[in-house]
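Figure 2 data, in text form.
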Amino acid sequence: MKKTISALISLLGKLGQGYAPYFVVLAHIVLGAVLVFASPRSTIAFLFLLAALAEIYYFKLHNGFKALAIAILLLGIMPILGLRNIFYLEVIFQISVFAALALGLNIVVGFAGLLNLGYAAFYAVGAYLWGFFGSQQMFLLHETPGTAPVGTPFFLPQDYFYLFLILGAIVAALIGLLLGLPVLRVRGDYLAIVTLGFGEVIRVLANNLDKPLNLTNGPQGITPIQRPTLTPEFVDGFNNIFTGIIGRPVSNGELYNVLFYVLSLLIVGVIILVARNLEDSKLGRAWTAIREDETAAIAMGIPLVKMKLIAFAVGASFAGTMGVLVAASRTFVSPESFSFMQSIGVLTMVILGGIGSIPGVILGAAVVTILNLQVLQGLSLYLSQLRQSDAVIPLINFAWRDLSTQMDPAKYQRLLFGLILILMMIFRPSGLIPAERRKREAVEKTKSE
């Protein structure tokens, strides 16, 4: 067994040298694209194709080649394959949304060491901002929720959505500052409790601000919310080029899926650039000092409250932008989408991927989202098919149709994530991809021992 592992490590080492990794990555992308194109419903083929991103990250490649390969895969190949099975675009869109949220929370938790259990509140701020101004809600302030008169106009033109992507970041950052001013003098568990309360306050306000003025439409949520314009020229041009490849004309609804998919990737790309520049900047080093020892940081002249406020504002701005994007994508927002469990889910992604690690939290978001949308749902669907058959479980001779619906894997999502977190804390507390600083600390600790 040891000889097999050694041989595998040696082979991987050889593949990572010279021009070999370039050919391996290109071959992986081409083979994965062919497999997904031939079997649009194959989850294994889709995951195999996505695994090319891990190769691009781990292999020593020129940065220009990495950027080109990622662009070809995500912006060239994936939209075409996604139009053959629109679910794949939805999976990557969800990964992008949660990656952006995880990157924002990573600024607060990973860089500055501030435990925030109400992060979904900033996400809600962005969503309700566009939900209010991009819908008919402005003209329904004195109406009973759910009783919009026929012909009620929308308040703003739909292309104001692009402006609100920026406004969502600004407004969420301001809310982050307002939250931080009174509470950032507390630390540790007390800060976690206060942020948890803030998150619940925002959700309860969204749930109850349907009176005396109907601002949020209460538990029913706001709908319809406008999407940006798709011009007929764009739709016709896209179909003229890609109908032959896809095998059928593409509807406007499918093109909206492509549009929001591309926008989500672009936003995540911008967020990664911002986070990387902040990580090793003067600001990032100040956050690290605060995270490691607040007393020492104060002694070194670091303005504690100011640095914490900036961390909250930057992290909140990422969530605000994604809230605007999701509101337009779904054309609907409601308080249930911004519960405490949403904040815990994002925190799970940060811990799983690696606190303070930018690639780590992206991987954590991808793993959790794929588990939710594909693995657990796929297992539940498979069990449902078995229940409708006459098959039995071997050895114990138990009929699948007698298996309780309470055993569906999708219902044990929180249990699974809890087990994952326990195992991570025991066997890999630094996460799947530890932060560079934590890697250096681990090496130094090993040398000292």
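Caption note: The longest strand covers residues 392-393.
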